[in-house]
């Protein structure tokens, strides 16, 4: 052996030639960057997604969708489609044996339109044929006679318009009243804000396979993120008992929302039941854009009151959310928007009214940070206006008002979880700013618009802006948040059975780490998800990190007790005096030392456990109530270069500080934060599903711009505050939604700083970023 110095006095041994050094075992357990088990298959292209599925005797499905945003259906003629060679069956609303309506929040959405279509792309009929081209040709051959009606596409007109749905146009109104409604401040600023329709834009379009069962039921293989809810919706529509329908979750190719349009699953199941054959559907990108839910377009009017020192006195707000044709989860999104309408700031008085209404626009639903993202862009715009009015720096006005643990939300709920908002803001404020680009030809690509852009370096202004955001974790307003998990140990292998869908959030990796940490077993497998398992709930609001991770932890601890009890009894001590580290069981005094494998001695151990956080309550008629289990916070500083003549924008850097409770997997956490920031930047600068009188324009990835690797800025995570939430398993907080909420507000703030323009619309249009001095 030889040795080398590292320059600090330490000597590092290096092996002599031919000497074999045993490899160190890979790290495992909580707090390490354990790679996902499915990473090799996904990178090699061998991971099975729903679009890859196959079955003997397969038929192909196609769906006929409405070309109108609103029309009365006078007749549907399927004769020519049925007579086409290779077509097995055509189904319409007349062929739905069970409940005609479905929906995640409210069952107000028909499987197939019956008397009226209410949005562009609504399903009218479905076809099963022997070839995918035949199915599409047959769907196009279905003759539908429409009476086109005037579409209501402005949510402000929905209040006075004729009812677009039997349930009316108003889905929910929340009038929040907190403190003294008559309070006034010495300084007042107003603002009008509009947030566009962001699409979740999953990597893979919706797809699925339905297989009939001998007992008259059906199995549906699809990328569901909430399989038990999808099963119940399908069973009700099919007129079957829930146990006759099984949903098997396939690989999920990206999920930043509910992921699936349940209507696709319902069409597939009906076709499989009618034909007695397996039926597959792989949606086109256009169908995906037309069918699944989008972020709620929102109109917000704000008035902020403050004293002469910049301390907030009162916030007044009106929030109008466009739900599209059906309710979906709009009531929940509105509750989040109204509750967080004042942001992570101490506000003594608040008067907020929020409405969610039906229109003939595309459907809206759950997308990361729904409700919270829209109001964050508005209240942060107001904070910038207050700073300008009072002659304060944007960061200073925020520091004078940030909330902390023990403060009240405008819903009257006390913030009991860690709320290190000031610490987060200080961290991004004090981080070094990026260097200015060199004034040289080789740095032209740094200009907004890139090397082929028309801009001049002299027209570029750099702006620095801030955003503070917050989201709630888990469901709200009395939602029963529960998940069940089973942990089995056989030999030296552990298996986790939990219906928590791996959507890219890293739950499967986290489940492995929990079992490794608790039981000291390195080889841990996570079973596939289907509805034969107990429910775990939807994969949104970071639920699975908290609720499903908590269930896995409890089950693993129960197995741990089963493992250690015989040893503890044998040596006359309690199990608390035994510890498991790196696959070894030792006692506090060193008397006992054995391996986990030896202690198991061929036995199979298992346990099932549930995790159910403390209950919440609905908001009352005044918008008051303890509606949320916990909160997460984020601060982002954005540095952006703006060509004030052309209005082109380049985000140079996003500096992030976030409260995460506890870092469970550093690499995975960083990836989630970076992805959230990039998605939020997309909402700020380019993502907007455009419509003309309810008609979706360019429903494809050519017409709908997404940020790519070339658009993504430098993302610097300067601080992760690990102040553990005592009511959360492991003390961790979900990480991906809050940067999505905060990033758009930070980008808008930076563009305001560079241009002096108010920037009240997202995504930011080029004409809005042209500086005032240029227009004069």
Automatic annotation (TrEMBL):
It comes from the Bacteria. Pfam families: Ald_Xan_dh_C, MoCoBD_1, MoCoBD_2. Residues 7-19 have a biased composition (Low complexity). GO terms for molecular function: iron ion binding; oxidoreductase activity. Residues 44-150 form the Aldehyde oxidase/xanthine dehydrogenase a/b hammerhead domain. Residues 1-36 are annotated as: Disordered. SMART domains: Ald_Xan_dh_C (SM01008). SUPFAM superfamilies: CO dehydrogenase molybdoprotein N-domain-like, Molybdenum cofactor-binding domain. PANTHER family: XANTHINE DEHYDROGENASE, XANTHINE DEHYDROGENASE SUBUNIT D-RELATED. This is Oxidoreductase. It comes from Streptomyces nigrescens.
